[in-house]
Specification:
The protein is α/β, with parallel strands linked by helices. It is built from twelve helices and 15 strands.
């Protein structure tokens, strides 16, 4: 049976990937050590998701392997030599706030861990597509130089601007403030590209906007739609950092993203790079997201606006999806922001009970 290796298999994207490839007939091996609980506390643990996947899916095995352990990673690939047909690398330290407090851990996970996986793939599975979950933070804060106009509920680009439909990969990654997280992910991103271009491996970097869905263990420092809905339901206070709560993000449901992974897996390229998010189909400002959460949950959110924006944070980001759609015309995006939030609410409302 063909094998898919998925890192971060208990996380939002990793768990969706596991389910997708098991359903597609793969034996899936997950590398997951629940570092998310270290980053964001026990409430953000991925362990419950991993346990549910193991219990429900006969063709899924979860291994407690740290991607920083090159020997451990190497053993997994060596044990499955000749059977690995796709590698999806979704494990990461995902928060630029957290990275500032422990840059060495952040870098060794996001950069060194990616190198370990690429080397193991090159040794034992060099024809397997290597799919890397990168980030739009590789562009640093250059999007903040865009000529944004302030509207009633959001910041917005003028309609005639070249990136009004979404930012493409021609934006530079140089001469900008990235955050340390952005730097470590950019290092991983460049490694993935280089293994594609130098060694000829089939590789792709998906530079994600906001990735979301009902399996997201949202926390204050990462996973804003999930955490926003959680706070709306539970009554926990929420803080919006800067920009008058008019900053804009595009949001892509994890199932839409994983279907993009599978399209690439079926027709891979070497050294491919795509911006990937909700695009113009699925985006919102903080004010718009708050209004949607309140309407769906039937409760008011307790929130406050901080004048201090997070360092390196984007005022506006919408991804241009046209390059990926041209290369993979069978792929379409299905979820918009309201549909995402309704699904998050429906699947979590029972265990996000109001605080009394």
């Amino acid at each position: 049976m063909a094998v898919a290796i998925v890192t971060g298999s208990g996380g939002l994207v990793g768990s969706q990937t596991v389910e997708h490839f098991v359903e597609a007939g793969f034996r899936v091996i997950g590398l997951e050590n629940d570092m998310r609980s270290t980053f964001f506390g026990p409430g953000a643990s991925t362990r419950p998701v991993t346990e549910r996947l193991v219990e429900r899916l006969d063709e899924f095995t979860s291994l407690e392997v740290d991607i920083r352990d090159s020997d451990g990673v190497d053993r997994v690939f060596a044990d499955n030599r000749g059977r690995v047909e796709v590698v999806v690398h979704a494990a990461a330290q995902p928060s630029h706030d957290w990275a500032a407090g422990d840059p060495q851990t952040d870098f060794t996970i996001n950069a060194n861990g990616t190198l370990n996986l690429l080397e193991a793939t090159r040794r034992y599975a060099d024809t397997a597509p290597f799919i890397f979950l990168s980030t739009n933070k590789v562009y640093g804060d250059l999007p903040n130089d865009l000529p944004l106009e302030e509207r009633e509920t959001r910041l917005e680009l003028p309609e005639g601007h070249r990136w009004h439909g979404g930012i493409d990969t021609s934006m530079s990654i140089d001469a900008s403030l990235h955050s340390l997280f952005g730097v470590s992910k950019a290092a991983g991103d460049l490694l993935v590209q280089e293994y594609g271009r130098y060694f000829g491996l089939p590789t792709v970097c998906f530079r994600g906007g906001c990735l979301t869905g009902p399996n997201h263990a949202g926390a204050m420092l990462h996973g804003f739609l999930s955490y926003l809905m959680r706070c709306t339901i539970s009554g926990e206070p929420y803080t919006v950092f800067g920009y008058g709560a008019k900053q804009v993000r595009d949001n892509i449901h994890s199932s839409d993203l994983v279907r993009a992974f599978d399209e690439f897996r079926r027709a891979p390229r070497s050294g491919a790079v795509y911006n990937m998010g909700g695009g113009r189909h699925s985006n919102c400002s903080m004010l718009e997201a708050i209004e949607l959460c309140e309407r769906i949950a039937g409760r008011q959110l307790t929130w406050e606006l901080s004048d201090q924006a997070r360092k390196g944070d984007h005022r506006w980001w919408i991804s241009d999806l046209e390059a990926f759609k041209r290369d993979y015309p069978a792929w379409t995006i299905e979820y918009d922001v309201e549909a995402i939030l309704r699904e998050i609410h429906e699947q979590n409302v029972e265990h996000w009970q109001p605080v009394t």
